[in-house]
Specification:
The structure is a homodimer. Chain A is of the alpha/beta class and about 350 residues long. In chain A, about 45% of the residues lie in helices and about 15% in strands. Chain A folds into 2 domains: about 120 residues, Isopropylmalate Dehydrogenase (3-Layer(aba) Sandwich); about 210 residues, Isopropylmalate Dehydrogenase, CATH 3.40.718. At the A-B interface, helix 8 and helix 9 of A face helix 8 and helix 9 of B.
Chain lengths: ~350, ~350
């Protein structure tokens, strides 16, 4: 019998937790109930969590509640996190993972603190210089992996090459039937464009491009991130963060104005009756909750950060993401990629 | 009598020119026909331009055609531009402006070449280190000025401070009844966020913030560019280019999927009958042609670059932009801002 997939969940992080997290857990369990190969290790105040499990009538067969009396505060800075976060629900998740009792950790709590304590407890992989935050982003053909989204404000060419390896491994674990196609985000597609660091990284990625590893597609501009021509978009954390948030802001601006237009008068309101199902499908496709979960890559184990303000459905999607990452054996994919790179004479 | 507003237009640059540019000129003249305070100096092959003026029945009262036999090629690189672009329609526009015969130049031709020859002919202002490309971007309350959009891949804190001065002067010239509110684009709003260069620039902008100059609003994140809280968004050319193109790509992705949803079946098509006018208003607000025209700032005179692929309506908007810039006396606003800055003990 194969080993069970074991997910450590910090039930206390983020807005409206643990109600939000436990409702998300219920959604997940209801969808995968036929599957007994999963264990959810839930960290938080045991009494409260058990009360919520009863309240929301959660099937607790695959649940394992582990008491943690304290919670990481939203005001905590990464600087003091190590001192003040010991034995919090977040800390205990990562510790559980380090001890081999969970395969992955998930929290909707303080991002900075999660990054610091994950790195401190799980440690960096020997082959990787800096960890990266990767996210999912819709594209015309399905889904992109984009990294780094803000863990590293400044990056070397080595960091960008590492991110390509890590990101394409993540892509393979999530979409085992697809091929990762890597692009470097830049201000133009010609070779002469961009910073010196990008030019060196691009040359190195060209050498590493292969069927087993990833196909390198060259530079990509911001307007093509969602075109589907590449599905692993590599950039430094400053640019990635600006790009992701600009896309979010643009989407919000457009949908807000669209909603306003479609409800501004009686006639346009009638149109909503006829377009209800079509607009619902449109909205579903763009629903940010589906893309909830940033994956912390480069450590000796994967850690997922759920958006703090997301609701139960969003949290459900981040649990599902954890499940897919472990099922797709991300860590093996990463090791395969890195081994392949080392073997290539650049 | 006040001096006429005189605009130099390169009729030959961009796709489908000179048809596109002359149709744009016709739209402009038709809208401002009551206004005899404007002169349009049109550069290109005289014979062809005069033929198009007849063909499109353009009122030529305020038109002055100036022959230029050659055109800057789209394949020309900025490196060889100076040698190969002399006496092209683009070159002659800028030269006309240098000679004081035009107040501003407009071209839809090769961006790199336009930047190089504008800088060479008009020269940098003494007070400014690097020129910037500024663009217009819709926000919830109206319009943003965003710069730099790609003229400078790497920027110092001094460049960013200059961009704030230039951008807020542009904002004042375009929207004389509004106050410029400057923000620096960053990965977070807290003081500790971002690169060292951003931190220094932010401190300096805080000192320069004043009622006459601009109000400095601190950092802004990508998701708030369009919120309207600030209206002059300052960033380096790499980040600005990525942000602008990512927003364009996101808008295109969303509207494409929306269109698909609303036309996928008979019922949803019916909805279009009822929402036609509302959707038209929505589309008009987001029409990228309205924001056509990047303004090259920091030289001894303003130069506007129209998107090469835009149609006649888009080109019309860039002529209108030139008109507003001169009417709003951009160069005086820039000088006022720079003088104020120099007088402030930082």
């Amino acid at each position: 019998m194969s080993k069970k997939i074991s997910i450590a969940i910090d039930a206390m992080g983020g807005d409206n937790s643990p109600d939000k997290t436990l409702k998300g857990i219920k959604l997940f369990i209801d969808k995968i109930k036929y599957n007994s190969d999963i264990v959810l290790n839930i960290f938080g105040k045991e009494e409260i969590i058990k009360e919520k499990i009863n309240k929301y009538k959660i099937n607790s067969n695959i649940i394992n509640v582990i008491n943690s009396d304290t919670v990481v505060s939203d005001e905590e800075s990464p600087m003091t996190a190590v001192k003040n976060s010991k034995n919090t629900s977040m800390w205990n998740c990562i510790k559980h993972q380090l001890d081999g009792k969970s395969d992955i950790s998930l929290s909707a709590g303080n991002t900075g603190v999660l990054l610091v304590i994950s790195r401190m407890i799980l440690k960096m992989m020997n082959e990787v210089n800096k960890p990266a935050l990767a996210g999912l982003w819709p594209n015309q053909n399905g889904m992109n992996v984009v990294l780094d989204l803000g863990a590293n404000i400044e990056c070397s060419d080595q960091n960008l090459v590492d991110f390509a390896e890590l990101g394409s491994a993540l892509y393979k674990s999530l979409f085992p039937n697809e091929k990762p196609k890597v692009s470097l985000l830049n201000v133009g597609s010609e070779e002469m464009k961009g910073t010196e660091i990008l030019k060196i990284a691009s040359k190195r990625l060209k050498n590493l491009s292969s069927e087993e590893n990833f196909i390198y597609n060259g530079y990509i501009e911001g307007n093509n991130i969602m075109s589907g021509q590449s599905n692993v978009i590599v950039t430094d954390g400053f640019t990635g963060n600006i790009a992701l948030k600009t896309a979010e802001g643009t989407a919000k601006f457009i949908t807000k104005n669209l909603r306003k237009s479609l409800t501004e008068n009686f006639i346009s309101k009638i149109s909503l009756i006829f377009s209800y199902f079509s607009l619902k499908k449109f909205k579903d496709k763009l629903d940010p909750r589906k893309y909830n979960g940033a994956i912390f890559l480069g450590l000796n184990g994967p850690v997922v950060k759920s958006h703090g303000g997301i609701d139960a459905i969003g949290f459900y999607h981040s649990i599902d993401l954890c499940y897919k990452i472990v099922k797709g054996d991300l860590m093996s994919e990463i090791k395969k990629n890195l081994k392949h790179s080392k073997s290539v004479q650049e």
